[in-house]
Give the backbone structure.
Amino acid sequence: METPNATKAILNWMCATRFEDIHPDVRQLAVFALYDGIGAILACSMLPVAHRMVDFVNLVGGPPDCTMIGFPARTSVLNAALLNGTLGYGDEMDAHDGDGRGNHILAANMGAALTIGQLVGAPGQEVLRGVVMGYELSKRIVRVAAQVDRETGIASGPVDAGSSIGATAAAGIVLGLPPDRLEVALGLAAHMSCSFFVDPSDADHMAASYSRGGGGARNGVTAALMAKAGYNAPLDILDGPRGFFHSRLGREDPGPEFLRGLGEEYGITDLIFKRHNAGGTTHVARMILLEIMSENNLSAGDIAEIRAEIRSGRSPARHAKIAETQAEVASKSNNDTTIRELLDDRSYYRRNMLALAAVYRTVGFREAYDEQYYQSSEVSAVRERVKFFTREDWAGNEDRFYAGVTVITQDGRNLRKESADRQMTEEELDAKFSHLVGLRAGDAKAKELAQVLKRLDTVSNVAEVMEQLELPEAHIGQV
């Protein structure tokens, strides 16, 4: 039986699928994704990473074609995609994938689709369709990598860390590229894509924001425009020898899992919105801590110790070897070796996130950047009472966004809770948007933008929306 050409199959499906063909629940989720994502971008426009990127944009220069979200000036389409994608990741306020497969896919796809949409005056539905399709392609690429990991027992790492290929699909669809030119664009994007782990020492998120959002958005817009201009690249980039998967994973074709359920299931439905500006399992631990405090009417002063348990970041193969070794040790010593205190270069960050949550009980965006909050004596005292532990028995991918928290109170109670991450309700999304955009632009502007963005699927020209996102420059220390 002949193996189907994966490149052309997914291209033809993406180009043939209209916005109204997408399931209504998926369409609504895409609206919420951009609503939440743009709110996070506006908040992150106050951060140092935003101002340094604008400094770069001004250094490079370019025609004032497109909006830099959260700033008053415009720049070239490529520079705008770079900035908007970078801030899409910003400070870990962006949504993540609840199944643990794919890192910050939305940031690059959203940045590319919004920016190219403004350039060509695309309707909101086309921007949303581009985001859904770009997300789908990115997610399916990650799916192939996960399958190879399972088959080989070796963690391959990110295969397209910045979602350049998905962002190219998003930009190309919004730009109106036909399948043959979109295929060229994907070939160009494959040559631009980067597979690189973010260094944990990147405390201000500058490298991470670029590699996980800005670089992919810029690459996506670049590849789509190059293809539109007639530039060429190798075709069938997802198939055969010397193709993308062969180059990155040693696999000549993506396998049946790449096209499985195409048109019936959508990768964007794995998206989970974040309540707080914290990464991965730290976000879940923070959510659980605040629930314990609320349910038991606790203040920070009532807490003697906070013990958070999260999954180890090791690969499945490494987990298996460790579990085997630990089982032998445990059988001899009768000690529990599945829980180990986590002391790494991210320890301070994790402990600080929980200390801020315990003291201020808010989203935590402003508090994480303003010295009067994060260096307060109360936060410092709580931080010393926070410990993180890894659970070696939480080895599955489903455990990536699962955590357990035990709060030991000053009066001797042990209050424990475990939970996976949970999707936010519309009311919770509204409260988050109001808080973040209210910090940036005031409550009245936040309310005005919420009404516009929640009806993005009815907008005839997304350029009109982008214009409303141009705001006077602001810094986090001013709010």
Notes: Residues 315-334 have pLDDT under 50 and may be disordered. The radius of gyration is 22 Å. The longest strand covers residues 303-311. Strands lie at 66-67, 74-75, 96-97, 271-272, 303-311, 339-341, 386-391, 402-409, 414-420.
